[in-house]
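tool=predict chain=A
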Amino acid sequence: MLSRQKVFTLGFQHVLAMYAGAVVVPLIVGGALKLTGEQMAYLIAADLFTCGLATILQVMGTQWFGSRLPVILGCTFTAVGPIIAIASTSNLATAYGAIILSGLFVVLAAPLYGKLLKFFPTVVTGSVVTIIGLSLIPVAMNNAAGGQGAPDFGAPRNLLLAFGTLVVILLVNRFATGFLRSISVLVGLAAGTAAGYTMGIVNFASVGQASWVSIAQPFYFGVPQISITAVITMILVNIVSMVESTGVYFAVGKATDQKVEKGQIVNGLRSEGVAIMLGGIFNAFPYTAFSQNVGLISLTRVKSRDVIFAAGGIMVVLGLLPKLAALTTVIPSAVLGGAMIVMFGSVAASGISILSAVDLRKDSNLLIAACSIAVGLGSATLPQMFDQLPGFAKMLLQSGIVSGSLTAIVLNLFLSGTGEAPAAESQAEAGSTAQHA
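tool=predict ok
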């Protein structure tokens, strides 16, 4: 049984692991829409507050809502372009009206989506989880170099910081035991940030400028307005997110050595729908299961839902106290990149572990895994290849997770002729799960 102090520390480690992904979306949207400094501060605070509420609902679970899996919810990158487009052509109130209604769609469509899970046999889920990990690795490497678009991108000091952070995490995992080992990523982030401070690249200006208290206000940017086109656009965005979240749920199941049931996924998606509606009400963003934290679970082997519950509580507090939230932004991108390398690599390794229960000597399984992973990784690393396609197709295919998942599902139907996992594979998977339990 973990003490409260340990639960809090492990929860804080999860917050730091996903913080960059959570904050970058409001920064991109706010910058593109030329929001004022005050509006940007509100956007970030509301985002963190809603992230926390959504995560708590997901972890607690009720009869109809919450997967009861250690899953953290964060704003989806898929929604960035559509939100900017809708707000630019009309206004933010129209974008938030669309987000609220699209969240309602997810709540209502979750049971129907659950009926499609038979098209996710072991070879498909293993391929999808592998794609999730591999498609995130370029994000890690970009951060390790200093962050995409940074003036010092690729500077030796950035590479040194990233490498040093990675080495610290590996050393703690190799030589430490117990609780210290489980917070290896937090130790690496702290050591990397301290090293960055001695190099003069840690800036505390944002902490001084941040306000002490910020209360999330419903409809901060005005009463929601309805546009059918905008609503349809956001529904499509959330369908993409539902596919991505399914892969994350399976990845978490593998990381925690448990079989993810259909009911858990349906309830988890219903929770995401509620979270999306909350995002619209508090003028934040649509939310989805964050894959960043799956690798952390695999690495630390701490599977307690209490830790994720604590992470949700910490995010709520950070959303209410922007000055504390600003403290977490001083971590250099290169340091985050060094930590991401091992976390995202762990997700890919989990996918490979799932695929190890599949008979890849069988041509159909080999082709399903090979083609879906290649398509998913290709889409993630070269999304601009789809720039000439219509808007919906472009949005769908530029997500490596979605394009890879669809490839795996279609090939499984075409080559295997069934939506059910072959009996031999199911037995192999059960044996693998028992072995890891």
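Confidence is low (pLDDT under 50) at residues 420-437. DSSP finds 19 helices and two strands in the chain.
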